[in-house]
Design brief:
- Helix content is 26%, strand content 36%.
- With 104 residues, it is α+β, with helices and mostly antiparallel strands.
- The chain has one domain (5-103): YggU-like (Conserved Hypothetical Protein Mth637, Chain: A, 2-Layer Sandwich), CATH 3.30.1200.
- Strands 1, 2, 3, 4, 5 and 6 form a 6-stranded mixed sheet that branches.
- Strand 1 (5-7) and strand 2 form a beta hairpin.
- It is globular and about 35 Å long.
């Protein structure tokens, strides 16, 4: 399975495709683009104004990965649907949890 994350020494970089105003807070599997990049699809009920959707994404990921909110930061894509997030923690453990979200 193609993974939406890249492992670092003490973190994971996660590619996410976010849909704000999505009707519910949930993950919708994996999306692979034509150029072969994988994204974890996520939707949140928050609107894409004043960073509300990004904050809702961090809260959702924090709950599902059982990681503190302070360990998750948006590296790129603040105002775009496609984002790169940095998640601090054990890379192998985080990757297995993310892959479980992507396959659900």
């Amino acid at each position: 399975m193609i993974s939406p994350c890249r492992l670092g020494n003490d973190h994971v970089l996660l590619a996410v495709r976010l849909t704000p105003n999505g009707g519910r807070d949930a993950f919708d599997g994996l999306e692979v683009t034509a150029d072969g990049l994988a994204y974890l699809k996520a939707r949140v009920t928050a609107v894409p104004e004043k960073d509300k959707a990004n904050k809702a994404l961090v809260v959702l990921l924090s709950k599902r990965l059982k990681a503190p909110k302070t360990a998750i930061s948006v590296l790129s894509g603040d105002t775009a649907r496609q984002k790169i997030l940095r998640i601090e923690g054990d890379p192998e453990d985080l990757k297995s949890r993310i892959d479980a979200l992507a396959s659900a």
